[in-house]
User: What shape does this take?
Amino acid sequence: MTQTIGVGMVGYAFMGRVHSQAWRNVSAFFDLPVTPVMAALAGRSKDKTAAAAARLGWKAAETDWRELVARDDVQIVDICTPGDSHAEIAIAALEAGKHVLCEKPLANTVAEAEAMAEAAAKAAAASGAKSMVAFNYRRVPAIALARRLVADGRLGVIRHVRAQYLQDWIVDPDFPLVWRLQKDKAGSGALGDIGAHIIDTAQFVTGQRLVGVSGLTETFVKERPLAESSEGLGGSRTAEKGPVTVDDAALFIGRMSEGALASFEATRFATGRKNALRIEVNGSLGSLAFDFEAMNELWVDQGEGFTRILVTEPDHPYVGAWWPPGHGLGYEHTFTHEIRDFLEAVATGADPSPSFADGLQVQKVLAAVERSASEESRWTEI
Amino acid sequence: MTQTIGVGMVGYAFMGRVHSQAWRNVSAFFDLPVTPVMAALAGRSKDKTAAAAARLGWKAAETDWRELVARDDVQIVDICTPGDSHAEIAIAALEAGKHVLCEKPLANTVAEAEAMAEAAAKAAAASGAKSMVAFNYRRVPAIALARRLVADGRLGVIRHVRAQYLQDWIVDPDFPLVWRLQKDKAGSGALGDIGAHIIDTAQFVTGQRLVGVSGLTETFVKERPLAESSEGLGGSRTAEKGPVTVDDAALFIGRMSEGALASFEATRFATGRKNALRIEVNGSLGSLAFDFEAMNELWVDQGEGFTRILVTEPDHPYVGAWWPPGHGLGYEHTFTHEIRDFLEAVATGADPSPSFADGLQVQKVLAAVERSASEESRWTEI
Amino acid sequence: MTQTIGVGMVGYAFMGRVHSQAWRNVSAFFDLPVTPVMAALAGRSKDKTAAAAARLGWKAAETDWRELVARDDVQIVDICTPGDSHAEIAIAALEAGKHVLCEKPLANTVAEAEAMAEAAAKAAAASGAKSMVAFNYRRVPAIALARRLVADGRLGVIRHVRAQYLQDWIVDPDFPLVWRLQKDKAGSGALGDIGAHIIDTAQFVTGQRLVGVSGLTETFVKERPLAESSEGLGGSRTAEKGPVTVDDAALFIGRMSEGALASFEATRFATGRKNALRIEVNGSLGSLAFDFEAMNELWVDQGEGFTRILVTEPDHPYVGAWWPPGHGLGYEHTFTHEIRDFLEAVATGADPSPSFADGLQVQKVLAAVERSASEESRWTEI
Amino acid sequence: MTQTIGVGMVGYAFMGRVHSQAWRNVSAFFDLPVTPVMAALAGRSKDKTAAAAARLGWKAAETDWRELVARDDVQIVDICTPGDSHAEIAIAALEAGKHVLCEKPLANTVAEAEAMAEAAAKAAAASGAKSMVAFNYRRVPAIALARRLVADGRLGVIRHVRAQYLQDWIVDPDFPLVWRLQKDKAGSGALGDIGAHIIDTAQFVTGQRLVGVSGLTETFVKERPLAESSEGLGGSRTAEKGPVTVDDAALFIGRMSEGALASFEATRFATGRKNALRIEVNGSLGSLAFDFEAMNELWVDQGEGFTRILVTEPDHPYVGAWWPPGHGLGYEHTFTHEIRDFLEAVATGADPSPSFADGLQVQKVLAAVERSASEESRWTEI
Assistant: This one.
């Protein structure tokens, strides 16, 4: 008999849907010391939350996240809301002794992230509560394999990292002013939303931290029609316009802790690129390259040319739990892997990774890029 | 309130696992007139079946498929066993007035397939029972989009189809003699297992049927170590050897009903190709190309060069139910789509496709290839 | 001081232009024991031939190829005419003791090819004259490297060859009836023109000969406007129409001398494919794949996935003579390599390859495909 | 009768070899108002220069470039020496009324480049002498096509340019200290050698100039074995070591004159990348992408996905002069195109492009990157 553990989730939009898929299926594929029970879902609207809970497989619905945090049948709180509420919910949950999985970026400001990291450390000491920030791309099997190759020294001394996260969903100037384009909700634009992912990915794969950056940001479209609903990734717009208060694109170059040079670009204006999280790493013995638009492939050079490794073999990270070779995985599987690792840590008492402290460090890089960009790209240490 | 419908599944190996994933999740993504309830799972071993049922989400377990067919809470029977038992189970289920979803190839012989198609027709008339053969690759969004482009005339008159299904899982002569390498269980080798998929895919995409073929088959490794268990895709082997009684590879060329030339190749000896179901179609106005190893991409030429369409847009087939653009799907989603379409047909009274008659036609092509191959590749009409 | 050798070329259309480029430049890149002197060019029209000679770098012009063959300053005769004149010119040149390089296919019929091979053998014995058929694709560095890998055993036992030569230049039914579409001039259509190349390439790379085939051919467009000039690859057309007397496409499957299965397709109706000479070889230890549309790349699998080898390293075949790594070569270089090898053989007394006997063998394969296609695809031995 | 024009070239190493190939063949492919005559080659060593002249097709050899400039049969001076001698030779040639084609980067310093641009302007006014800097990559057909698409507005407002020039030829720390690694000879390292190419390419394709940059440079390997000969791209090394005085890699971000954001990276430490000159441009209506390692391809997005255009059609820039579709060109052809355009300008009195003034502007960008890199990446205007 496996033990069960109750999960409560806050938010049921894009991130909530994909987290639900992971909670619902993780036990069918991975042998875990605990089985998650999808206890309750919290959202603001009673009807919508109840409908979402029914559809996504949550047993109960709450309209106040505080109620969800307080439930006896909830031991894990999974935060899938916009960044402006992360700190408040996470800190409350940690103080209540709950384990916390929080979507990225950890917070909208360094101050909030610091408070969260502090709360996480305190809760870990007090109640053994675990906390983790949801940089799901670490759990793409190809990215995890990339990390393994670098850690094993297969690339030698790392010289270069170049990472891009290219999307195009707001190229149209009539795309509405959704919450992700508002600084008070989202903290920043492309920088925090997708730039955060490539910062984490680059640091994870290389095992090096960014130590200084020089950056540029730009808002190409300064005003947009107001959205009828601020919640979605698009949808209807009104005749009225409002100011875009976040960056459309952010570029920066930097140095990493063991001497690698790094180049980053995050943009929502790369027409034709849909979700191109790309990273290339060059070392003294070899190189690797990845593009999420072909997420089951890792390209590795060891001197003869780049080999396209189809990362679907049983000995590749996470893959053994799924299908035979050549039967690829999709976007949602990265969350299943993340939740598998989180549950494993919760059950065994290990520290899940990336921690809130890791999330804070990424937040500091984001802040450094913004500061550099606002001060004529001057070099800014982290 | 949605109506529910009870499902019983026979078999819980590779196909059973992936069908379970589809049954478990289809309602969370698609708005369906009925909600499937995973009523019961049948398998031979009591313990293993019970464990599989618990893990995969089935409410009950049966050790006799006849019991499963007879259950009042089962309206749909989903057959995930090797081909030698398809006919018996399917015919029994149809006679009991159950809807039937059957894995491919429909049967191991034309005679069995004919009996099944007849039973399906009779049951449809008698009880309105629906039946469908599980050529899941039709439900790859890129393949469904390919069909749409051809049907819309975007490629003009079709001149060429070239289709390959390349795998390499038995290149090693010490790979054991699993059931898929035994004629009595599997009917044929690469031909029926993966050749059937490209026959169906080519006919589906072009809307043309194969009318004649000239073929070659070969068994490169004539003897293999016996497997400890005949069930899996690999696993332990014994010291004893036995004869491989199916083809390792099958090649054939043919003509299609509206004049296209066709070339097919199915092999388990294409080292480095893991699950390369590939199809290219050339028409008088354009062409398309697909490889399942990059399943979220369809390549389309309309005169300027091949365009890589990332088939992840909301208006692409099935995709709107899932994630934003660029967030790809995986192998298992093809089954979710298949089950979505089957449930839709069951609920609305439409005829699901591909029907057992379609499965029979593919069986006739397989038989024609085998006959041609055994008679010096002579032209064989279908 | 290097010795010089005089060259005379017959024909100055597409093949003549590219051969001229090779003769003009070979000595600037390769260290050769002889330096070719571009002595004379023969063509039917006096003015056009003189203009072509001036432009392409030939010292003299002749309007009768017999005069060219007879010239004292011509030791090598290079035949770049349509296939119907190959036999006559080549045999005359060989009888005159000249070395002969002849464009492919060697001839329009097996009988002609036999006569040529016989003349070549006789001349070799009598005068030491060398002869070679111009299958230039053997001299693509990537193809030569592929051959080396197979010969070195890197792929193990060869199981599969699949080769395609896909073009689309006559998809338009109003494309005129140029000489390549007339059986009396060209011998056959796609089969002899481009099918011959993939037959030679497949045999060269694997080191195996085709021993039997089953084929299909088709002429999709039966009538076309007459061309104003029969010479070119396109050009103006008249209002009158004439019958297309060659195949538009040819498909065949076959067996090779050491047990590999082979699949071939040659077509001029593959919309969007411009010059896609493709070959894939699967062996028990590895695989390789090539597409001439990316001619500087060879894809090689040795168990981990396909490696894209950029065939531009100094130790790759022919490459050391050219540019630094990554600075790719083009189509014409294959002819420069061919002529380098021919000159080397002429100067050292070695036998150039592919010989006229090799050309004859390819001719026999072409004839076998045609025979099989005309007799309901029945198996035809070579 | 075409007029002829005499050419004298200085230097016969890598660049001299490829320029020779272009001079030798340009008239066989392009209809030009003048025919170049390869009059004389200058080099320091008498024997080596004479041998090179014989091999490469130059009628005479000189050991003093001043003699070459002074020759009556030389109207065009082509400078293929390292950057430290460009200014002196070019200015002397221009003052002698000769047309000048000069390899890139134009000079080793802004001051030299300014003197050269001034001399070019003065000579143009005085004698009608033409001058051009040899940014050959502009003449890759795919790059020229990219420029045409942007100029035609097909991409809309340009938002992003990301350009990389990745090589790996000095990853080995024992690679010798050739002239390209010495500041006094080469001016700078990766920055001036290959960074200059992507600056020119990015500005050419977008039609925008860089207006400000923030940069980073690094020398990963600070000391290397002395080379036996400083001339080549590699070769033997001695036991002694010397300091590397140029950058191994340079990264910078910047803004362009019409608002695009730009990201650049030039490195000789990108293991596995041989000559990856890459550029991607994103506009409000579409995007394009190019990689010189696949130089015959241009990828263009116009909303549906990236189309691989095989840039081998007769209506693509420069291509009509060469081979049928799908028969690709190589590295050297970019020089043939460059010389074609230069000869056309010389003959018709048009101003060739890129001019020395364009070369000076690139030099200023290089200087700005170096200055920024030396002052903590601060923003530096151009």
